Amino acid sequence: MNTSTSSSGAAPSNGLPRIAVLATGGTIAGSAADATNTAGYQAGVVGVDRLLAAVPALSDVAQVQAGQVASIDSKDMALTLWTTLAQRVNTLLASDDIDGVVITHGTDTLEETAYLLHLTVKSTKPVVLTAAMRPSTALSADGPLNLLNAVVVAASAAAHGQGVLVAVNNRIHSARDVVKTSTFALDAFQSPEVGALGWVQDGRVEFQRSVVRAHTVATEFVIGATWPGVDIVTSYAGVSRVAVDALVMAGVRGIVVAGTGNGSIHTSLQQALADAVSQGVAVVRASRVGSGHVMRNGAAPDDTLGFVAANGLNPYKSRVLLMLALAAGGAGPVVLQRAFDTY
């Protein structure tokens, strides 16, 4: 780990919190040929030391230790990197020399990584993800302020025990609730169903509500060496059963369906998914809508066919939870439904 300002021992010499900043790439570390280009850029090419050097005010907020975990476009996030990142975060937080962790991440899969960490970090210390919608070379790049605000949140006593957080565009979101809602806007990250947890501005952090559902130290989930295969299919007009049959043949252990409306599923796809359940594959009904809850439908189709309802999780976060639940030994719709109702 590269160190931008060193720290050692049980307490920081200057009284400032000790925050580890882990970089994974993304648009926040992107570079384009000119300052007006916010689309044709290469993600993940700017190293963590340059990201920190662009925000000199960080030295007034915390003692920062910098680590480069990856340098990718987050569309290419892999399960092996999730394992590495989660283990790195847990190791850092177990040290008395670290008070919190900030992760710079690409926007494409940030909500998935954040929720994974929300369920697997075993500490009450703050973990804050941040990102940017414009590359570092752009006019009015949003990355530097987002990074500063993320460190401010991670250094705040109010962030302890709130689970994994996302700090972007002056808002603080819970990892469970936050989703990307725009392809270009600076306020792309929203928590559509419940709203942000709070805000951060000019060094001030205010939480207006607390996280209610179990997370971090209150979960049974840990990062293991292997991940059970779970994939996502979508219901739409005229959909066939081909994708489901292919996934079952490939040996997946779970399928999340992005259904229409309240997780409703086309008849052809529903029969394929029922057949998958009969072969031991877990099936979770989520929705492609973007907000709202997928509630358990009782006799049809959930009880009759053995499906699980995703509750307030979108298909992508549902996949994260289903993988972790299966890896923890969860089996059958009753046990898996309990996990979705809890987390």
Automatic annotation (TrEMBL):
- Residue span, L-asparaginase N-terminal domain: 18-211
Matches recorded under InterPro entries: AsnASE_II, Asp/glu_Ase-like_sf, Asparaginase/glutaminase-like, Asparaginase/glutaminase_AS1, Asparaginase/glutaminase_AS2, Asparaginase_C, L-asparaginase_C, L-asparaginase_N
Question: Where does the Asparaginase/glutaminase C-terminal domain lie?
Answer: 230-330
Q: Does the keyword Hydrolase belong to this entry?
A: yes
- GO terms, biological process: asparagine metabolic process
Q: Does the keyword Hydrolase apply?
A: yes
Keywords from UniProt, A to Z, are: Hydrolase
Its Enzyme Commission number(s) read: 3.5.1.1
Active site per UniProt = T27 (o-isoaspartyl threonine intermediate), T27, T107
Q: Which GO terms describe its molecular function?
A: asparaginase activity
Q: Where does substrate bind?
A: S74, T107, D108
Q: Return the broad EC class.
A: hydrolase
Q: Which family does it belong to?
A: Belongs to the asparaginase 1 family.
Report what the protein is called. Answer: L-asparaginase
What lineage, starting at the top, does this entry show?
A: Bacteria, Pseudomonadati, Pseudomonadota, Betaproteobacteria, Burkholderiales
